[in-house]
Design brief:
By secondary structure, the protein is of the alpha+beta class. It is built from seven helices and 14 strands.
Length: about 260
């Protein structure tokens, strides 16, 4: 096996182990706290999942850098490999018993997105991609949809945790898409939204004010499934996840037009 194969195997294993923690705690009593705002939640399950992943990486890949949402692990610009971890994407959903959440692990090699793994434990769906090797769900190759008309497209978005305070709240974009698309959803897990674009459940997704751990895995899965990602102005999506537009490629220009209106 190559080093990339080893990394993919480890990422899949750790994602499943963290997903098992989520599944065992789903709809039970657990501690819930707030972070940046009252609606920016973190639970003891987030921390338990991150601890499981970071412990595994520290044991098996001690030279690698780790950027994890809840702050454990050690990031470094000198490491060849960097793991970008969202231990529980969709925490608000999880805290409310809404069945839409996942584990997201993206891995970069010298700054280039190389491996992406997203695991949704309730449906037992594991999405993965390796740069140049395509995208898969539970081992089966996936591709973006072939719908090219916005009026037939199902698209998805989300809202930042500062939506109550900020004027840059994405509501103008939401209005434009509601008036143009076949349907608009807001599921609350950017990593899953990206995977659903990759496998054709959505034609497009956009969101502002995300973070690297929200998109590191899913964006690679979209492009390896034949889709397209960008920023809202059409250039490359920012590396920090601060904005992203993802699509099947066929409606991408129309999405950018709506986002610029």
């Amino acid at each position: 096996m190559s080093e990339v194969d080893d990394i993919l195997e480890l990422a899949c294993r750790l994602a499943r182990e963290a997903g098992a923690i989520q599944r065992s705690h789903y709809e039970t009593d657990f501690r819930i706290d707030s972070k940046s705002t009252a609606i920016d939640l973190v639970t003891e399950v987030d921390h338990a999942c991150e601890a499981k992943i970071v412990a595994g990486l520290t044991r098996e890949r001690p030279a690698d850098a780790i950027l994890a949402e809840e702050g454990s692990g050690e990031d470094s610009s000198d490491a060849a490999w960097r793991w970008i971890v969202d231990p529980l994407d969709g925490t608000v959903n999880f805290a409310h018993g809404y069945p839409c959440f996942c584990v997201s692990i993206g891995i970069e090699h010298r700054g280039v997105a190389t491996v992406g793994v997203v695991y949704e434990p309730l449906r037992d769906e594991l999405f993965h991609a390796v740069l140049g090797q395509g995208a898969f769900c539970n081992g089966k190759a996936i591709r973006v949809s072939q719908i090219a008309e916005m009026q037939r497209s199902l698209v998805c978005t989300g809202f930042a945790y500062d939506v109550h305070q900020s004027d840059r709240d994405n509501l103008n974009h939401l209005t434009a898409f509601v008036k143009s698309a076949g349907g608009v959803r807001r599921d609350g897990s950017a990593a899953l939204d990206l995977c659903y674009v990759a496998c054709g459940r959505y034609e497009g997704f956009w969101e502002l004010k995300l973070h690297p751990w929200d998109v590191a895995a899913g964006a690679l899965i979209v492009t390896e499934a034949g889709g397209r990602t960008s920023g809202v102005a059409g250039g490359p999506a920012p590396h920090d996840g601060s904005e992203i537009v993802a699509s099947n490629g066929l409606i991408h220009d129309r999405m950018l037009s709506l986002l610029g209106s």
